[in-house]
# Entry
Amino acid sequence: MGRLKLQPLGAACMNEDCRSEGRVLRAPEDDRELQAVLGELETYNLAANFTEAIRSSIDYVLDGARTGRYDLLSKDVHPGERASVGAKLEYEVQRVFKWKKAKPLDIEIVGVPVDLKSTVGDNWAIPTEAHCHLCICTQMSLKRNAHRSWLIRTHTSWLYRGKGNKDGKRGIAVDARTQWGVLLYDWSRLPVNPLTLLTESQVDQVFELGRGQEVRLLKMFSYLPKIVIERSVMLTVCAGNQDPMRRARAIKKKAAEKGLTLLCGKWVADRAAAKVHGYDLGPGDWVAIPNESVMEEEPEGGDLLF
# Structure
């Protein structure tokens, strides 16, 4: 798709509704609504909250606890499923930020209608109802494990011409995004699922058919020492089985025999021991520490966090 020659600032937008209201193309600093929304957004920890929303969306699509999948780029994931992360993200963003659904678009911020758009590609599909409105546009780079977001008024004049896709949605001209989009936050890291760090041979062993949950988990911890393992990762390794967390607790002694101390954030003593080694464990987090690096043995169990 070639570059679109943009109308200059101050010109009337091609959108008939804009023309009838006497609205013209304005730079972000001259757009009162945009500045009001931007001022409100600056009160949030945007990058961290979008990270949480994106991770939740990816986990939802992969459904690791049922499917055993953990990598959105895997050949086991259909391209349509990858694309659906964006649709799920709309709802996760509303949940994380506690923004309520509001017509005519997705949400309202300081009384201004705002649409939420996301892509795992290079552009966004803007529907006709969002033309000339403010949009928060999030881009996810799965290969880079990163994301960034803009706030932009998606004037019809700043969208590619033609009929768009089969739903009439059109992409934002690159120059329009560059010149008149406001970068809310630059590339921010998405935490990597520890299972993607395994070699192909290690994956085969961890997910070997016929292996019991304890064997699988022990393999995983031995291949991923000193890495915090979240509960969702363990559910993925034990996909389709019953009570994998109980199995994890059962392998602490076997892990010790192999030179690993397993610590779980559910237990006060374990959490304190992990803290000594620089790990801040949440209630469902685990970490395997090689015994030679354990400065002080902690008793198994301890007081529950809750």
User: Anything to note?
Assistant: The first strand starts at residue 107 and ends at 109. The domain at 194-293 is CATH 1.10.10.10 (Arc Repressor Mutant, subunit A). The first helix runs from residue 16 to 20. The chain has two domains: 16-189, 194-293.
